[in-house]
Amino acid sequence: MLFFLVDDDEAVRMMLTEIIEDENLGEVVGEAEDGSLVDGQMLTMRNVDILLIDLLMPTRDGIETIRQLKATFKGKIVMISQVESKELIAQAYSLGSEYYIIKPVNRIEVVTIIQKVIEKIRLEKSIQDIHKSLNSVLQLDHLPTGQQQMSTVKQRREAGQFLLTELGIAGDSGSNDLLDILDYLYEYEQKHTFKNGFPALKEIFVDVAVTRLGASAADPQINKTVKASEQRVRRAIYQSLNHLASLGLSDLSNWKFENYASQFFDFTYVWKKMAELKSSTATSHSDIRINMKKFIQVLYSEAKRIQAEG
């Protein structure tokens, strides 16, 4: 693995380099004393796999640097700082930081975290290789049109089911509603390409209900179906938040927590849910709000990505 270090403290950079090389974790191919001296093109040209970056620096801090790199740097990011502010950590995670190392630097902690990042990189590469192999074996382009469509629908449902499993709600009563919504959004995008934006939640639920009941269904029946579906989906999404917050409470470096919590939810509410779980606060008094539309949008985009890769 190739590393790049960004920290305004030369002693910290030297210590990290020594740990990485002594533990045979990889090679440090560059370093900088401030985020303003780093850009995505430079990291890409050096084939950097893991960027270790300080949170607080004099000219451009770690948060702003990650924001600047987000579009171009595809490697993994580990934040380093003596600041333990939950808000700053949450912001770092939401921008794509993989892990967080607290100063003063501890050799065991650094080694453990870097090994987890390396394991994640290798796992993602293995999954990509499997997808490529499956594509080559299946050769879906040579199937008749009808079979291709059936296979596409199956792949889409399987991608959605995989995500629901990852989010801890595969067996929830709202999971079938969410899978039907994914099917609807796919068809919607084929016809409208989201040229007028993502459809309104009400429109989604009504159209899915009509598809289930048939075009001749009466309005009262449609409204009843819509209301029941909305309630199931809302409960499922809340359960997913609860599941991810539980994972984060047990281990902030949990892969699922890191990968999904900031994507599917406002991280402020993730922290609130974690605080509730920690203090056993009754959920009936919770002020946590579920952004159902954001959850569905992310679920759809992630399902499409997985389907494309597979």
Gist?
This protein has 310 residues and is of the alpha/beta class. The chain has helices spanning 10-22, 40-45, 62-69, 86-94, 107-138, 145-166, 175-192, 201-213, 219-250, 255-264, 267-279, 292-309; strands at residues 2-6, 27-32, 50-54, 76-81, 97-102.
Domain count, please report it.
Answer: 2
The share of residues in helices is 55-70%
H/E element order: EHEHEHEHEHHHHHHHH
- Average per-residue pLDDT, rounded, comes to 83
Give the number of helices: 12
Strand content: 5-15%
Question: Radius of gyration over alpha carbons?
Answer: 22 Å
Any low-confidence stretches, pLDDT <50, length ≥5? 145-150
Q: Would you count the extended β strands for me?
A: 5
Strand order of the largest sheet: 2-1-3-4-5
Largest sheet: 5 strands, parallel
Structural class: alpha/beta
- Tell me, briefly, the overall form: elongated
> How far is the N terminus from the C terminus?
26 Å
